[in-house]
């Protein structure tokens, strides 16, 4: 109560302002001038400063050109602009001759910490659509000053944490009351796929799932509320929820793209929920420009370019990937590239570590790289105005608009020396507070009453300077606008040591006048008069010229040569070609189909499909012939358990049931391990959610179409599936001593939670049908819908399992609920109950020989595959590891070694059998007419440890071969060489820069509380300290998530 | 079937007694590793190879010798895993079974062999594939892990199993971080911390060696005021050049720093890990520092590197004349999988290492690097009759290991996995029978 009183007591707020004034420079006395209509009663005397200004003699710059004109400001608005306008009588006239005047810049993204004064209505602390930046504490004082110093007059302020961060606000960066600052209290909903910070969602896929569910809920809430009001007797009243009520999907939404793959994710979500979206970018847009274009939303473009790489040390310089170096080179070209691609963007200083030092430097660099200066100006004025819906009030200098102006010395967009000298916000002038060192250089006559002949002193320039007097020279320096001189006392009539002279300098009249004291105590007043220029030019100018020459030669930069994907090493320029017809001749062909192994055989392929396999096939006209004599050909290998190519979290291991999350939402086509696995003959992989919870997430089958985007990897038509898990991981056995309360903690509980979820799904179906019959809005529950899909046979289960008891339990559960088990994964005790697995037609996808890495696998045996196979279980060997996935052929050989499976059948463990398990055996897994042309040419017997994959084909396209690989390696060396040389030039030329400390600039407000943390997706080395919640950004080094060796890490397996 | 006769002790993994009567292995292809393979016979007497016969050569067989006719079989030296935690852990995820890491930065005093569990179920699994010797290596979160021991994977007690101790003083080289290369402020901070920690460890290492030298001096001088310090005591052998540092390091900055350090300190060094060793080949050659390449089956450490970087590492070292051998990853979780040692070598062979070098890299070379080259690693007269009988090239997965001998005594190749295999085969035999019977 007291708080509220203080807050709204005008006296209190007035006294705060009074205190504030005392700290400001004199011009700030203009502050209380207000053009706003205020309903507040005035306390004390009214203050009415003149509010008519005329800026005369400046050059007004717009994207269309420059014009010398006078600008008249009245009551905070532009009243007029014109070349021959006379300032109205009574206007305060500002001489801005020689200065450029721009429309005030608009910062489209300023993250502010929001006070968490009220508990949200939503169960999730990150879902706070009802929050409003405009009702919280806005940045003040220095924070505003810093932005104004860059020329920003308006900012779009948004919350800095949460998944639904609430409404942003458009704010004038003037001093004053909140009401005077805010011009748009609700700019739109800010949505971020934020994961981490403890609890659900720990992963990106979890965050996306939560966004999806919440949007769906918001729609339902609206419909249900309306339906209830229309028919209160039948339709139940939805529980009042101010979060859902506040989430207006029809309004503008700002979606944050944390990495380059988010553009497509945002596009998919925007399409699903018909957002009118604005994309908050990240500076990597040039890599996925087609995705950005397809989304078609305005873009808020980061001006954060990476610093120069420190590649001086050969050994540690190797830590920079080619993608890093490329980005260093290309990031400044990103804006020009987007412009030439017709993307509508606004520039933001957000995310720059040193905003003040870097923003304009980066803008000018972008202009140098081809961004037209006029476009850059628009991207700071008109475009953000339009994007924020304030184009009627801001964005250009025309009568009626808010008087937001930037007065600059020099051209901000091209001139390195240019700087903002004043920023006008809402008709209020804020002059640059930068103190220039006065320049009093020249020859001076110094005199005081007692001397006959004035002394002739030659005064230098700079903050610390030298003064010459005849042959003598002594030190002087500027302290603010006062010049302090320290001549030998003898020069001014003293005896020894130095005298102290201090003076004020009048730059207009070119005079100095001050007081002097000698060590002996003699005091006198003196005057100086400038009589001429210094004798010779200063050396400094010469140095400046030298620096100019040393400047990076921008012409070296290939303007916009980004033509491959992923960025950096081994990226491809487009999909490999698909020959119309192709024949592989004379190989030993392991068909993995009914034809078995055929010696000296041909494989005929047309448009990506196998047409025929057999001996001495006729070579069709125009077919490309591959001579494979002495080689072996097998179907492309299939890995039924992979965690590669999954972005920002493999596990949504928070809740025990998270079947709503989808690996398909977070495919990472930049994972370099895809390329490496192609080098081992792998063509298809089953990307699985981790095993940290009982009912995990929806899996995604992919083909390793390296070089494509996320969508291009999808194996279209693969049976939808879901990952479940049993045993130690689910019950958190190896999660450390503090994880002992999540249900379930025993294998008994695992059965029950699954059972309960399936029953819940059945009841959900009943309720959905009832709602349908009664015609009332039904709330979709995406978690239960996924569970229902399992029960209805639309989704098959891949269940992580180890011990025979739990395997058998799950067999019985599947029988009870009638769902389909695609595979038991790992299933290291499958050999003990293979008969039960066979009974329900479940596959067994196991390790060839892993064991003893945790207690539940102590009874694992290398004969598991053979025994399951013999018992009639469709059996495959999987990798669960990005390295092992590079050599699945020799994994298959272990079925021969342990248990004596025939070589032909053993090879099926990594081809046809996993295809069957994934229900994709009509398309892949064997070389038979009609199937996809996914195959591998091996140097020798495919089960031999001495053999290598020489070529790997998918859909009749060659994605890997040794020759191309050799060429790509050369390319990597060449590109690295060029970029390193360029970086070295900078490194040697600007050694001090390399040591320069990174200034961390963070706008902090008191009282704010962060909701959900986040980390940069481009961190190349994310420390793996907790394997359950480990999330990786893009362009990592390909390390398997399982290579960490701490005890907790086997929790993923 | 030779196995039946030799493995008379059934399924119980009972160590065989010392070789009593001479054994003639005949009719096999002998792969000595140290020289080209030939068809012929091998005579083992009292645990040693006393004679090798070429096919057709007159056999000079002592009275009472057991003759093993091995037509179509192959004889190879036993394989040696030179970087493992075998014996020191059973199930890595179960804390009670972990005996490889002592806390604190300096643990020079601990000896691996005393914690090797002779009844670990992991040992018979490794030896069933011809891996009969393993270096048991202590691990560390700090700097000096302790002293390793070469264990024979068969015996009643750890004392009986210890083939050589101590083999090396294991040192985890502190990471060299370069904060200048940080991409952002947050990363810079963590790299600065890492760099600081690394430098601190390096100072500590230098200091502890100086102390050990002083300790050695004081002890030699019989200084009565000297009190025992087990850590320094153990390091005396290192500063005297008797015991090499086995430096665990993968990346080039650490390798260079380690080599420079050991050369300057005049201590012997063996590099363990060595993912970037190929880049440092001339340096390693110059100072004759052997490399235990661990492992070959690995992804490149850097995104931009060739996909086969790790696989090509041994062939580059070999071509440059650097002494090397090959092992598995040797991490705390890798003990159960040491049976796959030969396939690490085979992978190197499929990426440029000559096949005969690949064989040596898991037999002769580890024996030499671990200082037992005079007894183990090849089939030569005078060496231990420690060998395996196979159906073919043991570096091929599909090859089976039919029998194994350590110093002329047969080794039981059964293990937990074969026992469970037999048990559950019986289950399905019965099910089949029941189904057939009606």
Write a concise keyword list for the protein shown above.
heterodimer; A: alpha/beta; Lipocalin; disordered C terminus; B: 438 residues; Urease, subunit C, domain 1; 8-stranded mixed beta sheet
Structure description:
The complex is a heterodimer of chains A (1053) and B (438). In chain A, 26% of the residues lie in helices and 23% in strands. With 1053 residues, chain A is α/β, with parallel strands linked by helices. Chain A has a domain at 442-533: Lipocalin. In chain A, the strands form seven sheets. In chain A, strands 1, 2, 3, 4, 5, 16, 17 and 18 form an eight-stranded mixed sheet that branches. In chain A, helix 7 runs parallel beside helix 8 (289-295), helix 10 crosses helix 26 and helix 18 (747-774) packs parallel to helix 20 (804-817). The longest helix of chain A has 28 residues, at 747-774. Chain A is elongated, with a radius of gyration of 36 Å. The relative contact order of chain A is 0.10. Chain B is α/β, with parallel strands linked by helices. Chain B has two domains: 1-78 and 377-416, Roll (Urease, subunit C, domain 1); 79-376, Metal-dependent hydrolases (TIM Barrel, Alpha-Beta Barrel). Chain B is built from twelve helices and 16 strands. The longest helix of chain B has 36 residues, at 185-220. Classes of the chains: A alpha/beta (1053), B alpha/beta (438). At the A-B interface, helix 9, helix 10, helix 16, helix 23 and helix 26 of A face helix 4, helix 6, helix 9 and helix 12 of B.
């Amino acid at each position: 109560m007291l708080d509220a009183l203080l807050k709204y007591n005008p006296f209190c707020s007035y006294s705060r302002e009074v205190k504030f004034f005392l700290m400001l420079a004199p011009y700030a006395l203009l502050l209380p001038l207000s053009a706003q209509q205020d309903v507040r009663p005035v306390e004390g005397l009214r203050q009415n400063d003149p509010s008519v200004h005329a800026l005369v003699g400046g050059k007004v710059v717009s994207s269309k050109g420059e014009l010398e004109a006078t600008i008249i400001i009245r009551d905070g608005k532009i009243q007029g602009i014109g070349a021959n306008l006379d300032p109205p009588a009574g206007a305060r006239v500002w001489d801005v001759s020689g200065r450029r005047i721009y429309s005030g810049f608009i910062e489209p993204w300023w993250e502010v910490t929001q006070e968490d004064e009220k508990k949200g209505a939503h169960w999730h602390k990150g879902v706070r659509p009802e929050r409003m930046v405009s009702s919280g504490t806005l940045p003040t004082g220095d924070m505003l000053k810093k932005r104004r110093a860059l020329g920003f007059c308006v900012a779009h302020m948004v919350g800095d944490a949460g998944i639904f961060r609430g409404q942003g606000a458009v704010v004038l960066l003037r001093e004053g009351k909140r009401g005077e600052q805010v011009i748009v209290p609700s700019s739109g909903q800010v949505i971020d796929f934020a994961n981490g910070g403890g609890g659900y969602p720990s992963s990106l896929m979890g965050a996306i799932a939560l966004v999806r569910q919440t949007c769906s809920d918001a729609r339902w809430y609206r419909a249900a509320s309306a339906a209830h009001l229309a028919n209160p007797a039948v339709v139940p009243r939805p529980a009042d929820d101010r979060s859902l009520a506040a989430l207006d999907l029809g309004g503008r939404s700002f979606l944050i793209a944390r990495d380059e793959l988010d553009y497509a994710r945002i596009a998919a979500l925007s399409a699903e929920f018909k957002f009118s979206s604005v994309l908050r970018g990240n500076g990597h847009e040039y890599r996925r420009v087609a995705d950005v274009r397809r989304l078609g939303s305005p873009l808020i473009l980061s001006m954060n370019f990476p610093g120069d790489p420190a590649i001086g040390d050969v050994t540690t310089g190797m830590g920079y990937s080619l993608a890093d170096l490329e980005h260093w080179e290309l990031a400044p070209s990103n804006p020009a590239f987007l412009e030439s691609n017709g993307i509508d963007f606004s520039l933001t200083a957000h995310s720059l570590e040193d905003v003040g030092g870097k923003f304009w430097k980066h803008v000018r660099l972008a202009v140098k790289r081809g961004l037209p200066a006029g476009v850059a100006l628009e991207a700071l004025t008109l475009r953000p105005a339009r994007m924020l819906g304030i184009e009627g009030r801001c964005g250009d200098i025309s009568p009626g608009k808010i008087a937001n102006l930037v007065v600059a010395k020099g051209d901000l967009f091209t001139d390195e020396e240019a700087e903002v000298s004043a920023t006008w916000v809402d008709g209020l002038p804020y002059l640059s507070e930068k103190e220039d060192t006065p320049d009093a250089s020249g020859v001076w006559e110094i005199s005081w009453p007692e001397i006959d002949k004035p002394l002739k002193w030659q005064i230098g320039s700079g903050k610390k300077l030298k003064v010459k007097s005849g042959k003598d020279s002594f030190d002087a320096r500027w302290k603010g606008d006062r010049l302090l001189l320290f001549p030998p006392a003898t020069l001014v009539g003293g005896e020894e040591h130095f005298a102290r002279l201090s003076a004020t300098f009048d730059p207009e009249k070119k005079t100095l006048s001050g007081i002097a004291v000698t060590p002996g105590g003699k005091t006198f007043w003196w005057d100086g008069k400038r009589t001429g220029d210094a004798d010779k030019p200063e050396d400094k100018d010469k140095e400046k010229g030298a620096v100019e020459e040393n400047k990076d030669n921008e012409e070296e930069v290939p303007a916009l040569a980004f033509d491959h994907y992923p960025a950096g090493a081994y990226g491809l320029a487009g999909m490999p070609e698909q020959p119309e017809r192709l024949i592989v001749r004379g190989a030993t062909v392991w068909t993995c189909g009914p034809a078995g192994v055929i010696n000296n055989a041909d494989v005929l392929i047309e448009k990506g499909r196998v047409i025929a396999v057999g001996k001495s096939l006729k070579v069709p006209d125009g077919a490309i012939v591959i001579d494979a004599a002495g080689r072996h050909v097998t179907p492309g290998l299939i890995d039924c358990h992979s965690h590669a190519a999954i972005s920002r979290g493999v596990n949504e291991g928070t809740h025990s049931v998270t079947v709503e999350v989808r690996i398909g939402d977070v495919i990472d086509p930049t994972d370099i391990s895809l390329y490496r696995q192609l080098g081992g003959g792998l063509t298809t992989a089953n990307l699985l959610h981790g095993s940290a919870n009982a009912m995990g997430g929806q899996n995604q089958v992919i083909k390793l179409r390296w070089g494509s985007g996320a969508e291009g990897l999808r194996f279209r038509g693969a049976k939808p599936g879901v990952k479940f898990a049993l045993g130690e991981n689910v019950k958190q056995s190896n999660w450390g001593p503090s994880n002992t309360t999540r249900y379930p903690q025993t294998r008994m509980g695992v059965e029950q939670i699954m059972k309960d979820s399936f029953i819940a799904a059945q009841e959900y179906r009943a309720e959905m049908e009832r709602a349908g019959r009664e015609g009332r809005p039904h709330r979709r529950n995406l978690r239960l819908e996924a569970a229902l899909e399992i029960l209805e046979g639309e989704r098959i289960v891949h269940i992580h399992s180890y011990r025979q008891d739990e395997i058998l339990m799950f067999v019985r559960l599947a029988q009870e609920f009638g769902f389909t088990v695609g595979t038991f994964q790992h299933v290291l005790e499958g050999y003990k109950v293979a008969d039960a697995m066979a009974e329900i037609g479940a596959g067994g996808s196991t390790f060839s020989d892993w064991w003893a890495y945790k207690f539940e696998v102590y009874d694992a045996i290398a004969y598991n595959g053979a025994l399951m196979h013999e018992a009639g279980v469709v059996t495959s060997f999987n990798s669960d590891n990005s390295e092992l996935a590079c050599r699945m052929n020799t994994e298959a050989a272990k079925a021969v070694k342990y248990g004596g499976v025939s070589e032909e059948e053993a090879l099926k463990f990594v081809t046809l059998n996993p295809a069957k398990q994934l229900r994709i055996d009509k398309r892949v897994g064997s070389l038979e007419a009609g199937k996809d042309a996914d195959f591998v040419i091996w140097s020798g017997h495919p089960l031999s440890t001495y053999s290598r994959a020489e070529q790997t084909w998918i859909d009749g396209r060659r994605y890997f071969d040794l020759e191309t690989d050799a060429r790509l390696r050369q390319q990597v060396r060449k590109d690295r060489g060029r970029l390193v040389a360029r970086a070295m030039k900078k490194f040697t030329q600007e050694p001090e820069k390399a040591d320069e400390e990174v200034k961390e600039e963070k706008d902090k407000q008191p009282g704010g509380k962060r909701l959900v943390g986040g980390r940069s997706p481009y961190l190349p080395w994310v420390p793996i300290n907790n394997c359950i919640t480990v999330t990786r950004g893009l362009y990592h080094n390909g390390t398997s998530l399982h290579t960490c060796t701490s005890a907790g890490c086997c929790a993923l397996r | 079937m030779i196995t039946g006769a030799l493995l008379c002790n059934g399924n119980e993994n009972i160590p065989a007694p010392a070789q009593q009567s001479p054994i003639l292995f005949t009719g096999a292809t002998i792969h000595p590793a140290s020289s080209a393979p030939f068809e012929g016979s091998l005579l083992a007497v009292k645990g040693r190879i006393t004679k090798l016969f070429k096919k057709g050569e007159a056999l000079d067989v002592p009275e009472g010798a057991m003759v093993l006719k091995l037509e179509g079989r192959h004889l190879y030296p036993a394989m040696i895993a030179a970087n493992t935690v075998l014996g020191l852990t059973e199930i890595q995820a179960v804390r009670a079974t972990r005996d490889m890491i002592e806390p604190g930065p300096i643990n020079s005093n601990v000896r691996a062999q005393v914690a090797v569990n002779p009844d670990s179920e992991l040992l018979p699994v490794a030896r069933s594939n011809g891996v009969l010797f393993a270096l048991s290596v202590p691990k560390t979160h700090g700097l000096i892990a302790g002293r390793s021991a070469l264990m024979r994977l068969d015996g009643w007690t750890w004392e009986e199993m210890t083939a050589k101790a101590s083999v090396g003083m294991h040192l985890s080289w502190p990471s060299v971080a370069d904060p200048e290369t940080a991409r952002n402020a947050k990363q810079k901070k963590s790299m600065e911390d890492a760099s600081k920690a690394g430098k601190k460890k390096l100072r500590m290492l230098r200091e502890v060696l100086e102390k050990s030298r002083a300790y050695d001096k004081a002890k030699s001088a019989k200084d009565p005021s000297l009190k025992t310090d087990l850590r320094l005591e153990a390091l005396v052998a290192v500063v005297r050049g008797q015991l090499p540092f086995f430096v665990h390091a993968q990346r080039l900055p650490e390798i260079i720093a380690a080599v420079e350090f050991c050369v300057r300190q005049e201590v012997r060094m063996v590099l363990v890990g060595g993912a970037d060793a190929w880049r440092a080949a001339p340096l390693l050659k110059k100072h004759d520092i052997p490399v235990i390449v661990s492992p070959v089956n690995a992804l490149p450490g850097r995104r931009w590197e060739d996909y086969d970087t790790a696989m090509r590492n041994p062939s580059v070292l070999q071509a440059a004349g650097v002494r090397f051998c090959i092992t598995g990853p040797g991490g705390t979780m890798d003990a159960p999988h040491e049976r796959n040692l030969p396939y690490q070598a085979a992978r190197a062979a499929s990426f440029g290492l000559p096949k005969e070098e690949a064989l040596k890299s898991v037999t002769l070379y580890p024996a030499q690097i671990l200082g037992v080259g005079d007894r183990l690693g090849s089939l030569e007269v005078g060496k231990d009759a420690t060998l395996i009988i196979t159906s073919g090239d043991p570096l091929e997965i599909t090859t089976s290991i039919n029998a194994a001998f350590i110093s002329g005594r047969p080794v039981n190749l059964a293990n937990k996995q074969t026992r469970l295999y037999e048990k559950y085969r019986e289950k399905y035999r019965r099910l089949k029978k029941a189904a057939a019977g009606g």
